[in-house]
Specification:
Layout lengths: L4 H9 L3 H6 L6 H20 L1 H6 L11 H33 L11 H18 L15 E3 L9 E6 L2 E8 L3 E6 L3
Antiparallel strand pairs: 1-2, 2-3, 3-4
Length: about 180
């Protein structure tokens, strides 16, 4: 297999950050779950192309038996289920959104905004860490457990997101800066 420079360039241009930035904090649990399922589909599909981005960017022919080609194929297989479920998941999210009363958007420094940011970052990391090459498309909300600590306050939190420890600090200039202790 071989990938053209145009294919590699197009894949490198795919960015999920603008999608994540459009998601409002403070959504009710049901619609939040459906929105993150759709986002997870996008992240899993995008992550599935990481093997192409890494191993296909050389422009050299990759025989199917080559370990790099096997990584590319594994990533494409990882992204396939999310690609298959995307349309249905998007339709479900749209249907629920039409039925959901207007939502008050949470403030950027709120714990609801932090929870959304944590979940988005967790989905992203699980699709890109350690050559995972996609495939992580959650169908439920990961639990967030807040650690009791004397250092916890409205602009600093610690806890577990999906069982993985994190720290988060808020500044007006940068928003939530989150460190998930994974990868």
């Amino acid at each position: 297999m071989r990938f053209t420079p145009a294919t590699i360039a197009a894949l490198k241009e795919i960015k999920l950050e603008p999608v994540a930035a459009m998601l409002p904090a403070g959504l009710p649990t049901g619609i939040l779950r459906d929105v993150l399922v759709v986002y997870g589909d996008l992240a899993a599909r995008n992550g599935g192309f990481n093997g192409v981005r890494i191993h296909g960017s050389s422009g050299r022919e990759l025989p199917v038996s080559d370990p790099d080609a096997q990584s590319v194929l594994r990533g494409l297989r990882n992204g396939a289920p999310a690609a298959a479920s995307f349309s249905g998941d998007l339709a479900a999210a749209r249907a629920l959104a039409r039925q959901t009363p207007l939502v008050t958007i949470a403030a950027p420094d709120s714990r609801a905004a932090l929870e959304l940011a944590l979940r988005l970052q967790s989905i992203g990391l699980r699709n890109t860490c350690s050559e995972e090459f996609g495939g992580y498309a959650p169908t439920s909300l990961e639990p967030i457990v807040w650690q009791p600590s004397a250092s916890q306050h409205s602009s600093h939190y610690e806890g577990l997101a999906g069982g993985i420890s994190f720290t988060a600090d808020y500044t007006v200039k940068d928003g939530w800066e989150i460190i998930i202790h994974a990868c």
